[in-house]
Amino acid sequence: MNIRQSIRLLLLLPLILAVSLTACEPAPPTPSAEGERATVAEVVDGDTVELADGRRVRYIGVNTPETGRPYAQEAHRFNESLTLGQTVWLERDEMESDVYGRLLAYVWVGETFVNLELVRQGYANAFYVPPNGRYAALFAQTEEEARAAGLGMWAPADVPLRITALHYDGPGSDRVDPNGEWVELTNEGDEPLNLRGYTLKNAGLLLYTFGDITLPPGGTLRLYSGRGKDSATELYWGLAGEEAWHNTGDGAYLRTPDGLFVDCYVYSGD
What we know:
The chain is α+β, with helices and mostly antiparallel strands. It has 2 domains: 36-153, CATH 2.40.50.90; 156-267, Immunoglobulin-like (Sandwich). It has helices at 3-24, 72-83, 114-120, 136-149, and strands spanning 36-45, 48-51, 56-59, 62-63, 87-91, 103-109, 112-113, 125-126, 161-167, 182-187, 193-194, 199-201, 207-209, 214-215, 220-224, 234-236, 250-255, 261-267. The strands form 5 sheets. A 5-stranded mixed beta barrel has the order 1-2-3-6-5. Strands 9-10-15-16 form a 4-stranded mixed beta sheet, with no helix packed on it. Strand 2 (48-51) and strand 3 (56-59) form a beta hairpin. The longest helix is centred in the first third of the chain and has 22 residues, at 3-24.
């Protein structure tokens, strides 16, 4: 190979690499052939819409902040921008409705996968509820990418508080003895940290708000899911007859009082 050929090859390498990387990327999902068309008449919140025929649709696999929580309005507005007045394609999974009678669906507007876009833009976290897991891995990966980029509700707080352990599967039934579950927090900074107003939330709806407790530098505390007497190093959520952390997979999300993202612990379960 002469010098001219070598130079030409070097110039072509970036193009060859870009083509190779593009070829390795998984193809984006497309709507299933099985489903139904409908029109969105009202957007209820970030992950729920009402159709023209009166049915309510809860998006599968994602969860946006509840009304009144930080970033709830942003998620609601983003959902409106995608779906309000639009003809949508509803794709079902194995379980077709929830306990509230809402239709569970993956929602598409043309080629736009609404559930996925909410996660991609940082307005929702992945929320796997068995058996509806068709796109669970994709949602989890997309959430991780949005967190890394600090998008939407993943805007980071400069706080040295970390989730250093999560025990989600205690002995026996977690519903009978919720205190078999616990989350450990550690102040990795050099100054005391007051946790008043901080929140810890699972991937679904359960949320714990910390009271007036201060962690010293290097200090650790555990939050147990069940009932008990709070101390400087042990707190109790107060749950009875339900688990905070699902054994099939979940996430613990820690935020400041104004909703900035502090840390998370996401696991896939058994």
